[in-house]
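--- STAGE predict ---
source: upstream dedup step, 1 unique chain passed
mode: sequence only
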Amino acid sequence: METNSDTFEKSGDMSYENVFVSSGTVRRTPGDDDTLPSRLFEILKDLVRIASPSGDEDTLARHIASTYFADGWEVRVDEYANLVAVPAGQVGDLPLLTAHMDTRPVWGDDIRARLAEEDIISLDGGTVTKKHPIQCGFDDKAGIAIILALKERLGPRFKVLLTTREETGGAGVAYALADEQNRGFFAGVPFAFTIDRRSTSGSDIIHTYAGLKMCSDRYVEEIEAISAFLGAPMAGSDRGTMADCYQIAEAFPIPIVNLSCGFMHEHTPKETLDFASTLDTFQVVERCLREQTRLTEAARWN
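--- STAGE serialize ---
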């Protein structure tokens, strides 16, 4: 879908101050968003410093619950250490954001100690640098950082599911989906984003896994249009390794996609993070959440 600044409707609740439009894309000049990169990175570093190999995510889950969901949210950490969060006293159906807390389990005590160092990662001119050539778990702590930063930016406008054991078969999300306490949590979700896709081949919107189409074509097209308008183009794809969204789509009729969030060469000491792509995904998801009515309509199955 082709989109430009003349055809894309601007939401009334989003400030367009300090914005100039060129060639159909939107780029922000320095202004209110100046603090976003540093805050997003600060959250990412906080997450990276707590080791969370598959099966050992409880410490990270409880840290996130107490640090980022202290006020205005009902949050629960279940027996598998999945974190389930809903705005307190929610009214109406809310979108769902998901990511996984576990990292590929290659840790030892020496790796844990290195990760805990204050300067384990640094942000230098938009580039994320690792102090040691080790796996820091950008897959999927970049996705979690985006969700937590969106929570701070937008407030209680969506539900959150942070899962465990995704890297070892998806037992965490399977437990969350079967848990009777979560029946109401998954009911009525108009659309959802899993933020857990590498950016090696560009910025993807994964809509199909193993032949299972997880959403309507129009939903993908709307995300593509929004991303293009923001100058952060993403493209629909049916290629990629399995993610939690597959099991969610199998269990519930929730329109869901998996979005790239900047990590590359994951599961190895050579992993990297394209922080510009991480920021782009933040902006795209933020815009989609602000356009909830529009996205809800697009996500409806024909």
